[in-house]
Each structure stands twice: as structure tokens, then as C-alpha cells.
Amino acid sequence: MACVAIHSDFRDDNRGVLLLNELCQQAHQQNLEHLFVLTTQSLHWFREQGFSECDVDRLPMAKKALYNYQRRSKILITRVK
User: 59 with 17: CB under 8 angstroms?
Assistant: First the structure.
């Protein structure tokens, strides 16, 4: 999942949760086992949604090769249900 943002005017309407639920449902339909996110700003929110921190080695090989160490993004993972 990349580049997900909710405008501050709409954060109290659970739109982020609704969007995440839809993305998880799509991941399930594609038979994916895990969903990864990279964030520099919303670590706490993704933790509240059930994601856990992991290191770059857990990323799929193609994404791992593109990881930008200078951005210092946190990597989080959750199991697709």
C-alpha cells in the first residue's frame, strides 16, 4: 500500500478505517497473505489498526530493492484476513 492520505477535514469520519478495510478486502480477494505499509508520519494510527513494525528484510524482494533508507520510513505489516 502506498501514498494513502486523508485530508484533516475528514479524519473524524473514520474514512481512513473504511479505506483500509477496502484495501484489506481487495488484498484478500487477491489471495495475499500480508499487507505492508511504509510511513513517516502515521505509525501510531497503523499500530491502532493492528499493524506491527517489522524491518526491511520482511518486504517482498522487489519492494526491498526500492526501499529508500534516507527517508527512514517505518515498515509495518499485518496479516490479511
Answer: no
- Contact status, residue 53 vs residue 72, Cβ threshold 8 Å: no
Residue 11: its pLDDT value, please? 75
For the beta sheet containing 34-39, the strands, ordered from the edge strand earlier in sequence to the opposite edge, are: 34-39, 74-79, 52-54
Our separate counts of H helices and E strands in the chain read: 3, 3
Confirm if 31 and 57 have CB atoms less than 8 A apart: no
Report the candidate in 80, 9, 78, 79 with the shortest Cα–Cα distance to residue 39. Answer: 78
- How does pLDDT run across 30-80, given as a tens digit for each residue? 999 999 999 988 899 999 999 999 999 999 999 999 999 999 999 999 999
Secondary element (H or E) of residue 17? helix 15-29
pTM for the predicted model, two decimal places:
0.84
